[in-house]
């Protein structure tokens, strides 16, 4: 018996080759499997891939938030969960409990109590109802003892988040107003003072902001925030050699705090040390810093200036998907900083 090749027989239909395309559930399953094996970086890659394939599915970002909770990135986790609520409303009510749990880890007990209560009100038969009930019991006991302290702490977070929002939006008038209040209420919280000088500089007080920051750096030479502010101020004043001098003091300095490390990377971009800047950007934990518009702006700029134009273009497209404020803005290399 002779086997015939179908391809040589014109009377038989040709077989269509159907490519196997993975859907979002495939990558979600792989991500969950990696999560249980505590391979968090791999889990995030799979889950972000699932989210890219099906951005309307709330389950994928919610699972990403759980990974952030597991690694201690509680603020980043809550930002994602708030985005889920904004997009899906009460269709994914578990988000309220997860937010409450993250706030409890952060020690923000009033916020934790508020979201746990919301969860119980919205889903009396919910999967996490008993956990939320237990959480509220613990919170009630703690808040009775420390109510005044935690009210102040909640106010602190409110000012932090409000100032961060206005700075991200480059609304320096409102940022200045918010930060002036914050400095008066929390004089020991130095970050507000650095942010206030930054906002004032872009709100028309360039000379005063520079003089004050130089005085701070003279009295506290170890301050990274002062060096970052001055590098930024000098750059916008056209004092490029002074920018290089400031950044020269940071060679070999690798801050563990991600926001400080981000500022160092931005500083190298401003100084024109693009390869060093790119190396610093690559070292960052993207899951934490991607919520900063400046992460994308200056990473794109350093890539473009180092002749990695394709990578810069791809990164800027990603930035516009995450930060809608960039949609109507020119690319960083088309803009004068």
UniProtKB/TrEMBL annotation:
<dbReference type="Pfam" id="PF13181">
    <property type="entry name" value="TPR_8"/>
</dbReference>
<keyword id="KW-0802">TPR repeat</keyword>
<dbReference type="InterPro" id="IPR019734">
    <property type="entry name" value="TPR_rpt"/>
</dbReference>
<feature type="repeat" description="TPR">
    <location>
        <begin position="156"/>
        <end position="189"/>
    </location>
</feature>
<protein>
    <submittedName>
        <fullName>Uncharacterized protein</fullName>
    </submittedName>
</protein>
<dbReference type="InterPro" id="IPR011990">
    <property type="entry name" value="TPR-like_helical_dom_sf"/>
</dbReference>
């Amino acid at each position: 018996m002779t086997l015939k090749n179908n391809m040589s027989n014109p009377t038989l239909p040709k077989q269509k080759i159907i490519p196997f395309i993975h859907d979002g559930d495939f990558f979600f399953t792989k991500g969950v499997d990696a999560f249980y094996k505590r391979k968090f970086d791999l889990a995030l890659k799979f889950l972000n891939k699932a989210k890219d394939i099906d951005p309307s599915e709330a389950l994928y970002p919610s699972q990403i938030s759980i990974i952030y909770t597991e690694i201690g990135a509680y603020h980043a986790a809550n930002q994602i969960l708030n985005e889920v609520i904004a997009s899906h409303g009460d269709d994914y009510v578990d988000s309220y409990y997860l937010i409450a749990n993250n706030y409890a880890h952060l020690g923000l007990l009033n916020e934790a109590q508020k979201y746990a209560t919301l969860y119980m009100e919205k889903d009396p038969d919910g999967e996490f109802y008993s956990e939320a009930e237990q959480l509220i019991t613990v919170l009630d006991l703690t808040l009775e003892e420390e109510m005044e302290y935690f009210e102040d702490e909640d106010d602190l977070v409110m000012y932090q988040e409000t100032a961060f929002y206005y700075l991200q939006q480059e609304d320096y008038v409102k940022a200045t107003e918010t930060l002036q209040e914050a400095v008066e209420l929390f004089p020991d919280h130095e970050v507000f003072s650095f942010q206030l000088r930054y906002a004032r500089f872009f709100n028309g007080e360039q000379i005063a902001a520079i003089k004050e920051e130089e005085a701070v750096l003279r009295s506290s030479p170890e301050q990274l925030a002062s060096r970052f502010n001055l590098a930024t101020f000098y750059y916008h004043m056209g004092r490029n050699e002074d920018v290089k001098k400031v950044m020269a003091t940071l060679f070999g300095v690798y801050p563990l705090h991600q926001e400080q490390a981000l500022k160092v990377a931005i500083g190298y971009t401003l100084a024109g040390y693009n390869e060093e800047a790119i190396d610093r950007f690559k070292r960052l934990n993207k899951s934490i810093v991607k919520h900063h518009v400046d992460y994308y702006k200056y990473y794109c700029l350093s890539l473009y200036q180092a002749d990695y134009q394709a990578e810069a273009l791809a990164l800027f497209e990603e930035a516009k998907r995450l930060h809608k404020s960039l949609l109507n803005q020119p690319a960083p290399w088309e803009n004068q900083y």
